[in-house]
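Listing S7. Sequence submitted for prediction.
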Amino acid sequence: MDALKRGLIIVQKINPFYLEDLQQITDYIPDLKKGASFLITGATGLIGSLIVDALLYYKLKKDSSVIIYALSRDKKRLENRFLWVDVEKRPLFLEQDICTPISNKYNFDYIIHCASNADPGTYAKFPVETIVTNVIGTYNILEYAKMHPNVQIVFTSTIEVYGSMPSGYANCEDDFGKVDFNQIRSGYPESKRTAELLCRCYAQEYNVSVKIARLGYIYGPTMTKTDSKVIAQFIRNALHHENIVMKSKGTQKRSYCYSADTVSGIFRILFKGKVGEAYNIANMHSVETIAGIAQILKELSGTSITFELPAELEKQGYSKPQDSILNENKLLELNWKAHYDLKDGLKRTIAILTSQM
């Protein structure tokens, strides 16, 4: 048995859907120079961990000499997350808070910056840390890049930077709406807005090669157990054959995107995007209401939908805009496409997670 299968059998149990995800992602990675090095921040999160998995898959399949650095505040979590690959092929673990400067002793060719608090419960509990991580963490990445002019960066931003827009409107990259900065919850979108502007300023003033990926509402099998996003809660309900719990009427429309499609979009932006510009990553076939997602998962799992009032702290983490929809045409022009609509993506997510139980 080769190293790839020997590794995947430990955690992914060679789930064919997950292997297919990794292959589709790596189709967007060109042939890399010998010894090319990547830094992935937030490497144990939903997106960061999948990016590392995809690079490991690329490395194993192509017998590549690519070097992968996975950064997180908790080395134990890093070790546990990447048990699936042989020790000598694992990423190099960097245990570090992104709010501390990146050491200049490293020479990264590419940085994909994913480190951020990324779910509503965390925004509500840790609003200060959310703002500081997004702004200071991004500043540290850009300061490193200023000293290493050949590094290429993707900063992962969010659909929430658009703020409140007209109902049903699909946001394009040049659009902007209102964010109520009187709300503590606004620390997340406002700090992402600031970080985006910081990226553009470093691109203009210091010629830093940075691009911005604006992510919609992402779901997939690499979701963390503590993810408090509504879709993550619904998926856990369906996975354990529990009632799907609605805490509102769920009429808001959202742009959802399966995690593997999101990561392939990030790689497309890294290698083909224009410096200083933002690109939405979304799927026009995955715009749905929260109630619609509950209905899909009800049908997939055979459970029921129930209603209950949210806790006060949980309500504080809810986003305010009624609809949040992205227009992905700019990314489509880079010859990218999403492979899975919402129903297919949810099916894959449940199938992969079920195989790990």
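Caption to Listing S7: primary sequence and predicted structure tokens for the chain studied. DSSP finds 13 helices and 14 strands in the chain. The longest helix spans residues 127-147.
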